[in-house]
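Here is one chain, start to finish.
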Amino acid sequence: MSENKKPKLLPIGISDFKMLREQNRYYVDKTLFIKDIIEASAQVLLLPRPRRFGKTLNLSMLRYFFEKTGQDQSFLFDNTNIRKNEVFAKHHCQYPVIYITFKDIKEPSWEICHNKIKQLIGDAFKHHAQMFEQKLPNKKDINFVHRIMENRANQGEYENALKYLSEFLHFCFEKPAVILIDEYDTPLHSGYSKGYYEDIISFMRNFLSGGLKDNTHLYKGVLTGILRVAKESVFSGLNNLGVYTILSPRFSEAFGFTEYEIQQMLKNYNLEHLLEILSDCYNGYSFGNTVIYNPWSVLNFIDNKGECLPYWINTADTSLIDKLATFGGKEIREEIGILLEGKSIIKPIYDAIVMRDLETRNDLLWSFLLFSGYLKTVKHLGDEMYELKIPNYEVKFIYRNLIRSWFAGKIEQNRVEDMLSALENKNVNFFELMLKKIVMQVMSYHDLGNAPEKVYHALVLGILVWMSYKYEIRSNRESGHGRYDIMMKPKDKGKTGIIIEFKKVNKKESHEKAMEKALKQIEDKNYASELQAAGIKDILKLAVVFQGKELWVREG
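Its structure:
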């Protein structure tokens, strides 16, 4: 890019393809997605992706490509890849299009949700109202159209509206319809959270199957959402459905930004030097076999000239994740602790989810987190088993906040702050006193069971999350032999580095002996070498030993 040429404005918050192109915003060319849709064997395609990965923009692009409006919209595709492809001349502006987005249907009750959906269906009919008045020969059909548009139709008529709308369009245009349904599962999430799940499932099952199942008036159907809701819930009997989740290599580059696209974008804005920072913050997703970046975070990062903030997380409603993780109990909390350490876990992943099963089957949580964008696949181990990790630095925020929420209300905030301040200032006696008070206050929430070291470890690790803006909190609980339990590596090398080793007091030894063993292990295994290699000279070595709910702390 020349020095005098001003870069295009970024398309932050713009999900309408026509608006983006008319305003000459920066566009990462995804137009060959159109060709892939046309050439797909499946007549109806479901493409689940995490939120803010460009689903609405891509469906908007499909709409402006396929829709026959009587106006020349070819300029929207000038200088794009699809314009040079043979499918452009054959398919551009050749079909009637039904476009419905459910992305804003997040209502507190079924009554309000139902009314909003009926309004959306009415708007879809109004889009073609003038043509229906002119071309539909049957008075009965015209009356049906008016009842839908005026919110006077009965439940069955609304459930069959997609089917009849495609039939009317096929008759008027003499071409089968393209049906585009954006964020089909947003009202399902709200229904699950707000208590009207069965109502919304029943409606959506009938509405979608009417328009998509064995419909001779359909050319192509494309649906987007976050999850593939199981067939028995919504897609019952839909034998023409092709599902392409983030686990599928097909369509893997259609949503989000690839590494090459990121490099080109940074070059365009003279920010190539920020590639490493951007990768650390937002890289890590794996769609099929492709490394993908979160577009919302990337665009905001570039717009803010390299400020690494949790842009995507800050737009999220994580109440459902908090709810599901809380149901999971101690085991899930320990596994989230492992993920926060930067390590992976191995779990079964199911690409079809019955949402009402989420509360009764703990194993579904990991599928929900993966498809929602809070985990990534590292390796497919065969069958449904996958190795999973947290995707990037940004997503760690959600897990840190989750740990904070687990302790909120159980620990007085000032006790946590006093304890952490004592630790930072190397006031070991006061740190011990405050930790004892917190253990007495909280430990009733934990079953010490056969692994008390893990419980203490998880408790202290969870509290230390409060200091993650000052320290890199590192931990390794895989064996406890030859590996430190917790290390706090200060981001300011002039500050104190901290190593904590946990030991259970055996029946035949005193707590003094256990502390000596813990401190000796820190020395013998040279745990401080990592901090020393990083240039940190001041290192605090602590032994935390315990017997039941009693504990002692000693400095080495």
